[in-house]
C-alpha cells in the first residue's frame, strides 16, 4: 500500500512568545510536546499539519515545585519525571502512582503533562487526576478549573494557538487512583481517582465515557463515610459510556464501581 505524499516544516521556538508568533503565521500548524499521539496520527495521515512547532525544549515549561498547599507542574514535564519527583511522591503519592501507570516506559519518558491534557484522549489517565484533585490549568492566555477545561472527546477549552503552561494540583488529605487497563495499550478502560479534602470528596472517572466525569452520588456518600462500603451500592448508568470490542458500556459501568472501591481502600491504607 502506497503512502500519501506529505511534507511539513519544522520549527523549534526559543520562547513561548516565539511559539505563539510561529502559530500566528501558520494557523494550521500543530504544537509538538511529547508527540506520543500526534506523531502516530501523522504517520497514519489522520493529521497533516503544514508545520510542527516543537515546544518540548522550552525551559519555562519544565519545573515541579511545592507551594502553598499545592504541587505545580510545568506542562513540559515528562510523565516519568512526575512519577519519580520527590515533591510529588511526598505530597500527592496518588498522582505519582497514576502517572506511573501511563502507557509503557517509552511513552512515560517522552509524553508530557501538557500534551496529554491538551489532547484529552477519553481513556487517558491525567484527566482523572486533574478533575479528581480539582486542579487548575494555566495557559498563555487564561486559567481554567479542571471541571471546565475538559469539554468532550478530544476536546478542551483551549482556543487555537493557546498553550498549556502549567497545572496546579491541590494537596488532598488522602487520595488514590485505581484503573482497569487495556492489556495492550495500558489505556484506562475505567479509571477512578478519589480524593478527600477538608471541604469534601471528589470522585473522577476516566476511560469509561467520552470524557472524564465526576460521580456526585459517590462523592456525597464518601463525605459521610469514607469507606469502600459507601460506594458499593452506587451504580453508574451505562447509557453514555463507551462500548467497544474490549468492553461493553454495562461492563464499564460495573468497573467504575469496582475501581472506586479499590481507590478508597488504597487511600485508607496509606
Q: Biggest sheet: strands, sense, closure? A: 5 strands, antiparallel
| pLDDT averaged over residues | 96
Task: Specify the CATH architecture of the domain at 173-270.
Answer: 2-Layer Sandwich
Poorly predicted ranges: none
Strand order of the largest sheet: 4-5-10-6-7
Quaternary structure classification: single chain
Named CATH topology of the domain at 173-270: Enolase-like, domain 1
Query: What is the CATH first-level class name of the domain at 173-270?
Result: Alpha Beta
Sketch the topology as an H/E string, one letter per element: EHEHEEEHHHHHHEEHEEEEEEEHHH
Beta percentage is 15-25%
Label the overall shape.
globular
User: Helix share of residues?
Assistant: 25-40%
According to DSSP, the number of beta strands is: 14
Write the CATH homologous superfamily of the domain at 173-270.
CO dehydrogenase flavoprotein, C-terminal domain
- Structural class of the secondary elements? alpha+beta
Number of helices, where a helix is a run of at least 4 consecutive DSSP H or I residues: 12
Return Rg in Å: 19 Å
Task: Explain what you see.
This protein is of the alpha+beta class and 270 residues long. Among the domains are: 9-54, Uridine Diphospho-n-acetylenolpyruvylglucosamine Reductase, domain 2; 173-270, Enolase-like, domain 1. The chain has 12 helices and 14 strands. It has helices at 16-25, 38-43, 79-84, 86-91, 93-100, 105-108, 113-119, 126-133, 146-149, 216-224, 228-232, 249-269, and strands at 9-11, 30-32, 51-54, 64-67, 70-74, 136-139, 143-145, 150-152, 155-156, 164-170, 174-181, 188-197, 200-206, 213-214. The protein has a 5-stranded antiparallel sheet with strand order 4-5-10-6-7. A hairpin with a 6-residue loop joins strand 11 (174-181) and strand 12 (188-197). The chain starts with 8 loop residues before the first strand and ends with a helix. 43% of the residues are buried. The mean pLDDT is 96.
Amino acid at each position: 500500500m502506497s503512502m500519501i505524499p506529505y511534507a511539513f516544516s519544522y520549527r523549534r521556538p526559543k520562547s513561548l512568545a516565539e511559539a505563539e508568533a510561529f502559530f500566528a503565521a501558520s494557523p494550521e500548524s500543530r504544537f509538538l510536546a511529547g508527540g506520543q499521539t500526534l506523531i502516530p496520527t501523522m504517520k497514519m495521515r489522520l493529521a497533516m499539519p503544514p508545520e510542527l512547532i516543537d515546544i518540548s525544549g522550552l525551559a519555562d515549561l519544565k519545573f515541579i515545585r511545592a507551594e502553598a498547599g499545592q504541587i505545580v507542574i510545568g506542562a513540559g514535564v515528562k510523565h516519568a519525571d512526575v512519577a519519580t519527583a520527590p515533591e510529588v511522591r511526598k505530597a500527592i503519592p496518588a498522582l505519582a502512582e497514576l502517572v506511573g501507570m501511563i502507557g509503557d516506559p517509552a511513552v512515560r519518558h517522552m509524553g508530557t503533562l501538557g500534551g496529554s491534557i491538551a489532547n484529552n484522549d477519553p481513556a487517558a489517565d491525567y484527566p482523572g487526576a486533574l478533575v479528581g484533585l480539582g486542579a487548575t490549568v494555566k495557559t498563555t492566555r487564561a486559567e481554567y478549573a479542571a471541571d471546565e477545561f475538559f469539554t468532550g472527546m478530544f476536546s478542551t477549552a483551549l482556543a487555537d494557538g493557546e498553550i498549556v503552561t502549567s497545572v496546579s494540583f491541590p494537596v488532598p488529605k488522602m487520595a488514590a487512583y485505581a484503573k482497569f487497563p487495556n492489556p495492550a495499550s495500558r489505556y484506562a478502560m475505567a479509571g477512578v481517582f478519589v480524593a478527600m479534602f477538608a471541604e469534601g470528596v471528589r470522585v473522577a472517572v476516566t476511560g469509561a465515557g467520552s470524557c472524564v466525569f465526576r460521580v456526585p452520588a459517590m462523592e456525597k456518600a464518601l463525605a459521610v463515610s469514607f469507606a469502600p462500603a459507601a460506594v458499593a451500592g452506587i451504580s453508574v448508568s451505562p447509557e453514555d459510556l463507551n462500548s467497544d470490542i474490549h468492553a461493553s458500556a454495562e461492563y464499564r459501568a460495573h468497573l467504575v464501581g469496582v475501581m472506586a472501591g479499590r481507590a478508597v481502600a488504597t487511600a485508607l491504607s496509606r
